[in-house]
């Protein structure tokens, strides 16, 4: 009905629904409800997990041990935050600001930026990298 071209680099559900010949309002609402429920469930699980982790870390008697444990957790939180914030922007933006070009740029950001930042975030504990970043700044 609307052609068979997906205006993305890869197939995503919103673009596939645009190709549908039928009214996809109920499918879109259903997809939104299921996605939101799953996303919220994952978010709650991550928050509860980190509450338990932080409680366990704060029970470590030495300050050096606490610092080491927190330095292990914080890069993971940074990655989770990066992925979640880009995903929220990608999938929860208003349809009024949606355009094929913006959708394509956001999908590229969502699929490229988090994996590209992972090595940097996880290696930030490296002393040589810290010194290089200080020199750069």
Automatic annotation (TrEMBL):
One of its GO terms (cellular component) is plasma membrane. Keywords: Cell membrane, G-protein coupled receptor, Membrane, Olfaction, Receptor, Sensory transduction, Transducer, Transmembrane, Transmembrane helix. It is found in: Cell membrane. It is a multi-pass membrane protein. The chain crosses the membrane at residues 29-53, 74-92, 104-124. InterPro entries: Olfact_rcpt, Olfactory_GPCR. Its main location: membrane. GO terms for molecular function: G protein-coupled receptor activity; olfactory receptor activity. Pfam families: 7tm_4. This is Olfactory receptor 14A16. It comes from Tinamus guttatus (White-throated tinamou).
């Amino acid at each position: 009905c609307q052609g068979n071209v997906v205006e993305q680099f890869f197939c995503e559900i919103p673009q596939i629904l645009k190709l549908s010949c039928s009214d996809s309002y109920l499918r879109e609402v259903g997809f939104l409800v299921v996605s939101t429920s799953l996303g919220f469930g994952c978010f709650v699980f991550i928050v509860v997990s980190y509450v338990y982790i932080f409680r366990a870390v704060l029970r470590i008697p030495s300050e050096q041990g606490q610092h080491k444990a927190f330095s292990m957790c914080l890069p993971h939180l940074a990655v989770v935050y990066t992925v979640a914030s880009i995903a929220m922007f990608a999938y929860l933006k208003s349809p009024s600001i949606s355009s094929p070009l913006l959708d394509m740029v956001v999908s590229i950001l969502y699929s490229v930026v988090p994996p590209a930042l992972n090595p940097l975030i996880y290696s930030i504990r490296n002393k040589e990298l810290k010194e290089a970043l200080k020199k750069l700044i």
